[in-house]
Amino acid sequence: MASETMVMPYFKFNVLTGTKAAKVIADPAEGAAIIDRAKNPLYIFGPEVIANPVGACLLIDYALKIAKSRDMPICATAHVKKKMLELGVKPDCTYDIIEIIHFLKDKNWSGVRGKGYHDLVLFAGVRCDLAERGLATLKHFAPHLKTFAVCRRSHPNADFAVPVIVKGDKWREYLEGLIEALGVKA
């Protein structure tokens, strides 16, 4: 599966992105390479990571493996923090999605762990309409960072996006491939 330009997102309200649309990352190894190039990434978990099963697991199980593979700070939005604590993982911060996007726009913000601005922000489990607005804001007002939407519905306002994956088993295969390419045993 080669990378391609965004064609049509899952939800049709996402089609007006301006002159710049996401690069579709159909190959999980290419997604891992993007994550590897980041010096100070951040992973944002939305409420759908604990609501959406991917095979026998929840999306949060895969997202945590991705974050742990590169010691990425995690921002828990909505009520995700409670589930993370139940799983024995403490998020680095808890903000609502609007707050964290506001902070990310500021290149002078010291970041979640105080190591400077984040150069790559991964999104997973954020409601599609809200994610699109946040990604559009970052695209236009945060040129110092790149965004990667790790979402099976795809997001054209991200810099990088997973292709639209309708079948649940294909989504699981993509996530497992990404985790494997990052060098983590699934």
User: Hey, roughly how much beta strand do the residues contain?
Assistant: 15-25%
CATH architecture field: 3-Layer(aba) Sandwich
| Share of helix, binned | 25-40%
Separation, N- and C-terminal Cα atoms: 21 Å
Number of domains: 1
Protein structure class: alpha/beta
Level-1 CATH class name: Alpha Beta
Describe the sheet with the most strands: 8 strands, mixed
Radius of gyration over all CA atoms, rounded: 15 Å
Number of strands: 10
What is the helix/strand order? EEHEEEHEHEHEHEEH
> Biggest sheet: strands side by side, in what order?
1-2-10-9-8-3-6-7
Average pLDDT, all residues: 91
Shape, per Cα inertia axes: globular
CATH topology: Rossmann fold
List the helices and strands and how they pair.
Layout: E1 4-5, E2 23-24, H1 28-37, E3 41-45, E4 53-54, E5 57-58, H2 59-69, E6 74-76, H3 80-86, E7 93-94, H4 97-105, E8 120-124, H5 128-141, E9 146-149, E10 160-161, H6 168-181
Notes on the structure:
The chain has 186 residues and is of the alpha/beta class. It has one domain (20-181): Rossmann fold (3-Layer(aba) Sandwich), CATH 3.40.50. It is 35% helix and 16% strand. The protein has 6 helices and 10 strands; from the N terminus they run E-E-H-E-E-E-H-E-H-E-H-E-H-E-E-H. It has helices at 28-37, 59-69, 80-86, 97-105, 128-141, 168-181; strands at 4-5, 23-24, 41-45, 53-54, 57-58, 74-76, 93-94, 120-124, 146-149, 160-161. The strands form 2 sheets. An 8-stranded mixed β-sheet has the order 1-2-10-9-8-3-6-7, sandwiched between helices. Helix 3 (80-86) links the parallel strand 6 and strand 7. The chain is globular, with a radius of gyration of 15 Å. The two termini are 21 Å apart. The model has no long low-confidence stretch (mean pLDDT 91).
